[in-house]
Amino acid sequence: MRASRLVSILLLLQARGHRTAAEIADELEVSVRTVYRDIGALAESGVPIYAERGPGGGVRLVDGYRTRLTGLTTDEAEALFLSGVPGPAAELGLGTVVTAARLKVLAALPPELRTRAGRVAERFHLDAPGWWQQADPVPCLGELANAVWETRSVHVRYRRGDRVERRPLDPLGLVLKGGVWYLVALSKGEPRTFRVSRVEAVEVGDRFERPSGFDLAGFWTASTARFEAETPSVAITIRVDPAALPSLERAIGRAAAATLVAPNRPDPDGWLRVRFQHDSLEAAFHDLLPRLRTVEVLAPAELREMFAAAGQTLAERYGVQATRSSTPRRPAIS
Prior knowledge:
Layout: H1 2-16, H2 21-28, H3 32-44, E1 49-52, E2 58-61, H4 74-82, H5 86-91, H6 95-108, H7 111-123, H8 141-150, E3 152-160, E4 163-177, E5 180-187, E6 190-195, E7 199-207, H9 216-230, E8 234-240, H10 245-252, E9 259-260, E10 272-278, H11 281-288, E11 295-299, H12 301-318
Helix pairs in contact: 1-3, 1-6, 2-3, 4-7, 11-12
């Protein structure tokens, strides 16, 4: 661990110039005292590192001292720094590993590529979960990740509904989908998917033989497509303001959405009639509810009744009596 930290300090200074001991400690998640000890160890090993006191001071390497990797193009450097997912990496226990790897690459880049890679990291960030979405607690994720890396079987306590089952699994991979972690593992010889938040305990066993040629991405694509095809759905028909159609597609998913019933014949008020499949009436109600001013449900009748009942409840609760003469202010659509 210390050897890795010494290399990280060296590459941090090489990539970013001088840094204070406090900044280095914060970057590597150690104490300032540990940083000073590591700097002393680097100096004793012959690394030309020194510290300056006072304003503008800090820890530096002698100008010109560096190691170099070669072969990265501009596009490759930018892609590497665009693909970082610090949140999920930290959940896997790989936060410091990812940081060290990025530092190594950044330190090895020529100045012009280093500037562009840094610019990408400053301007793009991936935040997987949706708004107001509570992240699943995944206390066993780190243990499962280690089992995946080391190709070791596990026995897990897996919660399914009201009961907890003990399952022997051969972990093949982990998938992050919409902010939720899933484990793909062999169960009774067949690859299956398990929600990591339902794993309550893990016992790691012996190594197992990973199936030759198993394609995690390919399995996930096929299994999700099969899940979506087999999941019961309901046909929804609505009228929608054309300006709100992009927002609607984002809410219900472009793949599920927007088959125009009469593509070339909008209603007299300019609104379009759209038909799509949704998971359930309840899910459709919650997705369409924030769009009351730009969407009108036409079918099925049960969904129209749900909106009518919700409107009546709101009117009674807030003591508002709707009139046809009142014209609601149209919200901005982005």
